[in-house]
Structure of Aminotransferase:
Amino acid sequence: MTTQLTNVQVRDIEALVHPYTPLHRVREIGPLVLDRGKGVYVYDTQGKEYIEGMSGLWCAGLGFSDEEMVEAGTEQLKRLPYYHLFGAKGYEVAIELAEKLKEIAPVPISKVLYSSSGSEANDTQIKLAWYYNNALGRPDKKKIISRVKGYHGVTVMSASLTGLPNNHIDFDLPVPRVLHADCPHHYRFGLEGETEEAFVARLAANLRALIEKEGPETIAAFIAEPIMGAGGVIVPPEGYFAAIQPIFEEHDILMIGDEVITGFGRTGEWFGSTAVGYKPHTISVAKQLTASYAPLSAVMLPQFMVDALESESAKIGVFGHGYTYGGHPLGCALGVKAIEIYQKRDILGRVRGLAPLFAARIAKLAEHPLIGDVRVKGLVGGVELVADKKTKRPFDPKQGVGAKIVGFLQARGAILRAIGDTIALCPPMVISEAELNELFDRLEKALDDGEAMVTKDGLRG
C-alpha cells in the first residue's frame, strides 16, 4: 500500500481515469507514472527500471525508442503530418502499407480499409458483414458468433463480441445479434477424463447445434482470435479450427480473423492464423502493425467482399463509412517501417529461436505450488494461478491474488499483466536470451512472494 505519493502521482490521480483499473483503489495503490523507454525497459519518474514483459499491451514488439522507427515517424511528420482518405484521396505511405499487407497476408486479400484501433477494426468488420449481406439480398443474415472469453475490443459492438463479463456488466451489453459459443480451453472446460480430441469434437458439435437452433440463414459471421489474449492466453487444442471451419463453410458464414494481438510475428509466423490452422475470409490487424509507435489498424478484405461494397455503393451513391484518422500518414509510415524491420531483422526467425527457451521457462513454472496450468505459443504465454492444483480450484476473485503477484513483480522491477488469476507474458520480440531469463527469474521470485502471502493470509481456504 502506497503511504506517500509523489507530486506527479497525485497529479495523475487528479487528472486521469485509468482504463481496466479498480478506480476506487487508485489513490490507495498509487499509479506507476512512466517517463521513458529504451529497448525492453521502461523507467518511471523516479528513474527505476522495469523489464516490460507485456510489450505494453501486447503491442510494442520492437521495444521502445527504436531509432529507425523514430526517424521514420519524424520524416513523415515533416513531409505530410496529416491527411485523410475520404473522397478518393490518398497518399503514398497508405498505398505502400496496403500493398505490404497484401503481400504477407495468410489468405488472399484484395484491399485494405484503415481505422485507428483494434476495437474500431472489429466494429468495422461487423458493419461490413451486415453491408455485405444486404448487398446480396440477405437482410436477415446478421447475427455474429463470438466465443466465451474472446476479446475483440470495447466499442459498443466490439465489447458485445467480447465474451468477458466485466466488459458487459452495467454497460448494458451485449447488444442483440451477438451469440457466444464455447471457449476452447480444455484445462478449464474439458469434462473429467475428456481428451483434447474429444473436447474439440464436443465443441464442434455444440457449435453446429447453435447454428441450427438460430438458423444459418440468420448468421452472418464468426469472429475469433487465433490465440485468445485478454481472455487468459488460451491456445486452442490441436485440430480445433480444422474441426469448426467446415461448419461455417457449409452454412456460408463469413470467418473473421482477429489478429490484433497475434499478427506480425508474435507466434513465429506472420499471422497467428497460420500457426493454428485457421483460414479466415477477413482479418483485423492493429498493435504490432506499427509496433505501437502510433495508433493504426486495418481490415483486410477479400475480392468478393470488395465487389459487394462497390455494388452497394453504386446503389446508395456512396460508401458511408470511415474515420478521421483511419490511415493517418504517421501510422502508415510507421507501419511500412515496422514491416520492413520485421523482414530485414528476421524477427520471425528471432521469435522461433527464442520460443524454446520461453516455453521451457514457462513449463518450469508449472511446478510452482500456485500454478495450475501454463499455455504458450511463440512469444506469448500465460500461467494460471490456482488455490488447489489437484482439483484446479481457483482463488476467490475478490482476493485479487493475480493482481497482488503482479504488484510483487513490479516491486522487483518487471511488468506483467494479471488477467484475473492468469498472469500473461508477451515480451518485446527483440528481447535477448539474458533479458528473457531475467524476466522469468523475477517472476519466479514474485510467485514465491505470492506463495508466502497466500500461506500467511490463509487464502487457500
In short: The longest strand covers residues 371-377.
